Amino acid sequence: MTMRKEVCLAMHFLGSLESQDTIALSWGLRQSTQVSAIVNRFVDAVCSLDKHFIYFPEGEEMRAAADGFYEKGGLPRCVGAMDGTHVEIPKPPRHSGDFLYYKGKYTRILHAMVDSKGLFLSVNCGIPGSLGDNVALVESEIPTLLFEHAYPNGCYAIGDNIYPLRPLLLKSYDFTTADERQQAFNRCLDRARAPVENAFSRLKGRFRRLKYLRVAHGRQRRFMVACCVLHNVIERNEGPGEYKDDDPAFTRADGQDLIEPDITEDMPRADAAEREAKGMSERVAKHHRGVGKVSPRGKEILDGEYAPWRDLQGGEALRELVADIVYPEESERVARAVTAGLAYAEWYEREHGRP
Questions:
Q1: E strands along the chain, which residues?
Q2: What would the pLDDT profile of 120-141 be if each residue is shown by its tens digit?
Q3: Angle separating helix axes 32-47 and 3-14, nearest 10 degrees
Q4: Does the pTM exceed 0.85?
Q5: Strand order of the sheet with strand 78-88?
Q6: Which site from 55, 103, 227, 302 is most exposed, i.e. has the minimal number of CB atoms within 10 Å?
Q7: Alpha carbon 219 to chain centroid distance?
Q8: How far apart are the first and last CA of the chain?
Q9: pLDDT score of 221 more than 90
């Protein structure tokens, strides 16, 4: 088989939920183990290029990222948005409780930071699903990247409320107590966070294998990294696209789906007794390798004692400053929207009567 065909076969595997036997039959191979060997070689080759395609922006690229977030959400000098998504996996052979998500599924967390276009700037793959995004953050390289590259340029990243508030990482105000100015900041932040949500959606739309990653437990991380690398390659060359379950590209002429039905519904779920046995406090304390606790550096960051961040007081002060900057523009935007809505209502009433 030529290299071109091997690449196509590997992309077929990553882009579908078909079994190796089905793919082997489609490509004229006698054994499913041949599919496994080809896909593993391809994944290893792609993973070796991760630093070339997943990297934190500098110089002009950082300014372009900041401009993009300002256009989307109105936040000045924001260079990244972070979040996590769960990738369902079969029950692990060891330490299965560490991977037990509260919805009763076994998962790994894919935690990432993206730019305004949805390109991955940093990924941390494989954290057990029982741990939260905040633990995935502190066990990643993102704190170091932000301190070394973003902070000297007066930039920062954004995330949802599960993350700690730091001078390099802003999150929204408490919605129950936020005043008008703080609510304006929250709306801007929510719009600016859209690229990371959309990036995960496109990632799983292109690489449907991530809907249920049935591969060897020790290789799951590499498959997740490979999909993120390929996502950046595609986005840089072709731009974002829409991927839906009813996409004609995945449908045969007779209307039947080329992709096998989602097999996750047929997978056995952990029983209630096992879920209850794993309390939240115990799950958060577990180290992502299945033994011990959160690494010392991770504990320092969660406690606010991480050396680069310990000396940076003013996460709340920075958020207040940004809120002051965005409030006038956001208030004006809301006023225009309200005016346009009232004008439309008056026109509709004139043309069609009161609804």
A1: 78-88, 107-114, 120-128, 156-158, 169-170
A2: 999 998 888 888 777 888 778 8
A3: 90
A4: no
A5: 120-128, 107-114, 78-88, 156-158, 169-170
A6: 103
A7: 19
A8: 66
A9: yes
